[in-house]
Design brief:
This protein is an alpha+beta fold. The chain is 28% helix and 25% strand. Strand 4 (95-102) and strand 5 (105-113) form a beta hairpin. It starts with a helix and ends in a 10-residue tail after the last helix.
Length: 250
């Protein structure tokens, strides 16, 4: 399947529309799913996403339903609801995260906030945008005034002015891409590729530094593998975070 990046964004938008519509009338927010780490809302959102993606015939790697082979060399990496614990508690900070990879090379990404509707997008080589407007990271080069988003429990040794633990890796990465946060770190190296693929592409296209806590490749199609994504506004800030992030991925 040969599709231009902007056309992939069209498919991703239709997928996000389907998930948003499914959750609009959803009322079982605290109900568990089939797995211990899953909510009913995750399953409902996954079905809505697959309705669109299966009809398009593409391969899909979803957090909720695993790898489904389609035609072509492209795969859509899907987190139907990133921040589902927030959603289950009715904390209005969660999103759908979608990234197209050709082989293991990112092509297009979309992250849509499922409460506000704010949408971040990127096409490889085409820059990053929020609601259609170009975005770029802050110019923060040192930790003294840096506001850092994290996954996990930060210790006192983490340099930075203030820390935010917001509960959605995709939205945190997009916040780095547009300058709301100066850095994002996964302190536990516990993210599936669906959590960060779109956000990492959006950061890279916006001009942020991206990496992984142990220098590993971030993009893969293994459901069981976990990584520690990092994004910072500048390479200088990344180097000052010492062992928390010095491995360049871009």
């Amino acid at each position: 399947m040969t599709v231009a990046g902007d056309d992939w964004l069209g498919l991703l938008r239709r997928t996000a529309d389907s998930v948003a519509a499914a959750l609009r009338t959803f009322d079982r927010w605290t109900q568990s799913g089939d797995r211990p780490d899953q909510y009913a809302l995750d399953q409902v959102a996954d079905v809505a996403a697959l309705d669109v993606l299966d009809a398009a015939g593409v391969s899909v790697l979803s957090e909720e339903s695993g790898l489904r082979r389609g035609v072509g060399n492209e795969t859509v990496i899907v987190d139907p609801v990133d921040g589902s614990t927030n959603a289950s508690r009715r904390i209005p900070h969660y999103c759908i995260s979608l990234c197209v990879v050709e082989g293991l090379t990112p092509v297009a990404g979309l992250v849509r906030h499922l409460v506000s509707g704010e949408e971040f997008t990127a096409v490889t080589g085409g820059g990053a945008h929020c609601d259609g407007h170009p975005i770029s990271p802050s110019n923060c080069t040192g930790p003294e005034r840096a506001i850092i988003g994290v996954s996990g429990r930060p210790g006192p040794e983490l340099p930075g002015w203030q820390v935010r633990v917001l509960g959605s890796a995709a939205l945190d990465l997009c916040a780095v891409a547009c300058g709301r946060l100066d850095a994002y770190l996964d302190l536990n190296s516990n993210h599936g590729v669906w959590d960060y693929a779109a956000g990492v592409l959006i950061c890279a296209e916006a001009g942020a530094w991206t990496g992984e806590t142990h220098g590993r490749e971030l993009f893969h199609l293994e459901h069981s593998q976990r990584r520690g994504p990092i994004a910072t506004s500048t390479a200088q800030l990344a180097s000052l975070l010492d062992g928390f992030g010095r491995h360049d991925h871009r």
